[in-house]
Amino acid sequence: MFRLLIFAVIAAGIAEGAPVAKSLVRIEATFQEPTYKAPWNPGEVSGGVGAGFVISGNRIMTNAHVVSNAKFLTVSKEGDPRPYPAKVLYVAHDCDLAVLTVEEPGFFKGTDALEFGGIPEIESTVSVYGYPIGGSRLSVTQGIVSRIDFQTYSHSGMDSHLTIQIDAAINPGNSGGPVLQGGKVVGVAFQGYSGDVAQNVGYMIPTPVAKRFLKDIGDGHYDRYVDLALSYKALFNPAARRALGLKDNDRGVLVGSVYEGGSSEGIVKPGDVLMAIDGLPISSDATIPMDKDSVQLAEVVERKFKGDTVTLDVLRDSKPLQLQIPLNGPWPFTLHGNAYDEDPRFILFAGLLFQPVDQNWMTEYQPDDLRLRYMFDFFIEDKIYREHPEIIVLSGILADPVNAYAADFRNGILDEINGRKILKLADAAEEFAKPAEYYVIKMAGSGRPIVLERKAVEDARQRILSRYGVTKEQNL
Amino acid sequence: MIVRILPLFLALCLPAAAGVIPQPKNKPDPASKILSVVRVNATSQVYDFVRPWAKKPPVTKRGLGTLLEGGRLLVTAELVANHTFIELEKAATAEKSSAEVERVDYECNLAILKPADPAFLEGMKPFALDSGARVGDRATILQLEPNGEIAQTLGTVTSISVGGYPLDNMGLLLFRLSAPMQQRDGSFTLPAVRDGKLLGLLMRYDARSQTADIISTPVIAHFLKEAAKPSYGGFARAGLAFASTRDPQLRRYIGLNEAGGVYVTEVMKGGAAEKAGLKKADVILAVDGHAVDQDGNYEDPGWGRIAFSHLSNTIFHPGDTVPFRVFREGNILEIPVKLEARDRSKIISESYVVDRAPRYVILGGVVFMELSRPYLQEWGGEWMKNAPQRLVFLDAFQNELPKDRGKIVFISQILPTPDTLGYDELDNLVVARVNGKEIRCLDDVVTAAKSPVDGFQKIELDEDPGLIFLDAAAIEANRDVLMRKYSLPALQRL
């Protein structure tokens, strides 16, 4: 099974081919992806191929999605048929990058570490190296830089970073391969569109993102991107500008929400107008001048690290104010992002399967249930997390006499067990572990409670485990 | 979008059921033809909830009006919903008369028509109402051939149960008939008869499963009785939801040793049950002396085992007091519940808006509306997935909103004008305040807009972007331009 993101190949035979061969590696991964519908099972095994390149310090850079959920990894060099077992040193799911190494001495002998360049000019030519579909040897494609903008990184599905669009034709297997210009890495090929959506649109991760990743792991730990955790909106409307006390110089964006648990909480207020970030003037379309170009104001924060500070010039009630925001953490909610390298969490009790809802769960189950969709979609906006830090759903029922009348409760949200409000999966495990005559389970919304008698639960336990081949009753 | 037009395929019936329906004779004999039905041609025009100042193109539907005792001509409410013109036509002679709606109730989907010519129905023979049927009984659906002859389709009653009526999804007694009907004459409102009596009024037909849903005679009788009163009281609701007590573990946990009973899961705020003192987790054992089984059914002398809600909403009328026998924490209580019909003015998001225009207010191109289900249904059959999700959720969970929430006022769209520059991407946003005043209905928007803050209309939203400003003087000056450019007949309709 191929699960690498689509990437490009055209004809090879570019002059840069020869030296790069000493830096390029082919990565083969064996994945085991868990299934949320039978979370006690280890999951299906599949394989995939991606590319990587040698960087300083005997390391190999590739995409996070090339190595995510991998149980076994090998890398091979050009001109050396041997696959070498490799291991992941750091993985950044929020920017789709990973660093690997090979422990076997001698692997890096004869390889050249590539150096990073800057952001290539629009319309300049770049070369993409990798192992895309259509053959097993190194392939080179060439294209020009089409666009430089923020894009969602589909690996996590919730993070946006600076991205460079190139016009090379695209096939799967280029993922993690270097994009070169003048012998230096200017990007890491990572995603594109399939041919029926758009043609000649491929994306690479630019060097500011790659360099930031390498700097972040410099202390031996990946801290993730820091985030202001606020929303803002362009301010074009002349009446709105005057009402907020803005001059007609086309500056300023309006803060809509400041998210709880984020860096700006308690410092920035909804209704504030952001005028400048670290001294760079913010245009009314939320861009700032940077690197001779205009980029989204978030780019300032994108290049910072945990513990750094950002300075915001704001207009509050028409009065100028300078705010210092200590960047103490990432975007505070992970619910809507794809998760990797994690075993599904669950509790199986009396044949009732309880699971915390996250993006992986939603992707697999695709539920229609309105309340469930509401709690997931509006988790942040409507502060669902205050009452339900984890949305725990009764996602499945292993039919047995003990739960014969529980079928109507499927897709219900767990609210209380024996009078205790359930905030996290561990709370439920605790309540189920307590000896009680009855386990009275209340779901969100109206409805009768699910009542389970202890003796019935105990009698059913082994029966359910053996009948359904369940090897594990919980993973908290 | 208000009227769900159900495809109805009318049918030819081979052998006639027993009954008083005269068979067509070889020699035309108008006097002996069935004189209990007339053709009803109803032209209606639905409001466009996306452009609430406009109506959609007119549609004409045909059905049969059924004459009942007292000279009352009965049709489904759907047939005449949003009507602009109603015409009656005698089958045999094609004699016509226009008609008015004398009484209509969209909850039970019934209407009484009154011909403009009082003599129009004279000489016709009214139907009496049937008083009991069982699953397996046969009934005949009547249709009219284009030439005025009666066509009959024999069907079998396959279920008698309380089910959802189309417009309000209110649970009322419903018959289901299995009958292989053919489409004829575009009709969709037809009588079903048995032994010369009216068993009910057909309101929808599913051609694939060949089943017809029929408004039952008890519902018709209730409607007629209410319609005869000076003040129409409608159908009462007990105002509670319940679950089955089949689960023996639940029965043991609550200590319920009595047979049957249903577990109350929800008592609606301000409803009859709440006022009477019923509580969540009560078990209803009997209603008006009829034992309620574990699924909520009782044995009706006429119609067999049906849901007890039939007692509270159809057998009894608003204002009646019905005794509920209730099991609560080991005790048996008798609780009298004084029934009342729902006060539609207190509904946050109405499930139907018929015969009246949707309300709106336009402020400088910003279109304000009150949330209702017909607005969401403009997104088509998959509206629950495709309509703006916050509004779908607010509509679905409106019972969980604070009782004094008022209407949900939202900005449905923003018409691009120089005054709304930069706002054109905004739509379907719930409004919290205008000029600092809380908004609980559209009238609040009008009042609040009279007091701009520092020359601006300040609109605060419950969601991003949080704040919208309009120049109060500019939008006032540009009123005529806005109306002309977008062909708006008025900037508000309340």
Topology:
The complex is a heterodimer of chains A (476) and B (494).
Chain A: H1 17-20, E1 24-33, E2 44-55, E3 59-62, H2 64-67, E4 70-77, E5 80-92, E6 97-102, E7 125-130, E8 139-153, E9 159-166, E10 178-181, E11 184-192, E12 202-206, H3 207-216, E13 230-234, H4 238-243, E14 253-258, E15 273-277, E16 280-281, E17 287-290, E18 293-296, H5 298-302, E19 309-316, E20 319-326, E21 346-349, E22 352-356, H6 359-365, H7 370-377, E23 392-397, E24 414-417, E25 420-421, H8 425-433, E26 438-443, E27 450-453, H9 454-468, E28 474-475
Antiparallel strand pairs in A: 1-2, 1-4, 2-3, 3-6, 4-5, 5-6, 7-8, 7-10, 8-9, 9-12, 10-11, 11-12, 13-14, 14-15, 15-16, 15-19, 17-18, 19-20, 21-22, 21-28, 22-23, 24-25, 24-26, 26-27
Chain B: E1 37-44, E2 59-68, E3 72-76, H1 77-80, E4 83-89, E5 96-105, E6 110-115, E7 128-129, E8 138-144, E9 150-164, E10 171-178, E11 190-194, E12 197-206, E13 211-216, H2 217-228, E14 236-237, E15 240-243, H3 248-253, E16 262-267, H4 272-276, E17 283-287, E18 290-291, E19 297-300, E20 304-307, H5 309-315, E21 321-328, E22 331-338, E23 340-341, E24 360-363, E25 366-370, H6 373-377, H7 383-386, H8 389-396, E26 409-414, E27 429-434, E28 437-438, H9 442-449, E29 456-461, E30 467-471, H10 472-477, H11 479-485, E31 492-493
Parallel strand pairs in B: 7-12
Antiparallel strand pairs in B: 1-2, 1-4, 2-3, 3-6, 4-5, 5-6, 8-9, 8-11, 9-10, 10-13, 11-12, 12-13, 14-23, 15-16, 16-17, 17-18, 17-21, 19-20, 21-22, 24-25, 24-31, 25-26, 26-27, 27-28, 27-29, 29-30
